[in-house]
Amino acid sequence: CSQKLTTREEKYFRASGLLPYYSTPAGPCFLVGVEHRKKGGAQLTVLGGKRELTDGGHPVDTALREFNEESGFLVDVCPEVDKAVRKAQAAGRLLYTWQRGAQYFCVLWEPAGGLLRDWPKRFAALTPAQRTKSGCQMETLHWVPLAALITARSGKGPVTDLTGSPLPAKLSYTLSDLVSGGLLDAIGPS
Known about the structure:
By secondary structure, the chain is α+β, with helices and mostly antiparallel strands. The chain is built from seven helices and nine strands, in the order αββββααββααβαββα. The strands form two sheets. Strands 1, 2, 3, 4, 5, 6 and 7 form a seven-stranded mixed β-sheet that branches. Strands 8-9 form a two-stranded antiparallel ribbon. The mean pLDDT is 82.
């Protein structure tokens, strides 16, 4: 995990995602989505996706576009998110993890001032038509403690979000790979 990208990584990334988090006394919590895949069923995943030709040359460009799409274009908040992430980027306050095999960048970002804390509720209020229009593939969004993600990866028990709602105990490849070391290294001990 680092605060800078190499030229090679920036040039050759294929996909990128934004993984907001905030710190709690019990450890970090992450905003993840539940996505239903044709193979494998429901799983927890990072809000991200493939790089497009219209994206800028930086993984943050792809991560922001994908985050906006996957969160249903919550238009009253997305410009705020874009501005806050760009400001954090300029100040060197974003963390990047590079998953070489997948050529995937995950951008870790800690929003200030409670921005995004109510995101799962706002997402739940969107109609299916609003979600479909934005290209959103997420069924729900959740703030999930790192400990719950570790439990999901190990398969050693039920997984719940911060509100106690049950979640799929399966992680996407990207999220599983991050939990196996990247997130712990990036965020550090609580």
